[in-house]
Amino acid sequence: MNELKELKEKVKRQKSVIDNISDGWHTFGELYEFRKSLSIALLNTNKAISWKSKQHHDGSMFNGGYFICGIETPLGQVTNHYKMDSWELFDVKELELAPEWDGHTAKDSIERLKSLKQQ
Question: Which terminus of the chain is less hemmed in, N or C, by CB atoms within 10 Å?
């Protein structure tokens, strides 16, 4: 039990270090929050093609305490995982199971986001 507590503390310290790494303008923590805010705005203003789920398509979810959300673009899905404390900020339809991941990469997501047009 002590080992688990020590491991959790180590992970917490490492996350703090990573969150504070900066490019000289922004920290990783700030950029993560910025990305989350953009996701909230994008999904909430495109409700017809957006969703959130507490489970992946197969009923799993990694590292508990997270959910997945996404938007369906003309070129395919764009998805992200966020901590459950942000669940209520995403005012989109809730699915029991998320759509199956189509294999998109970060590069794919950028191109897919560019394919969205003002509705």
Answer: N
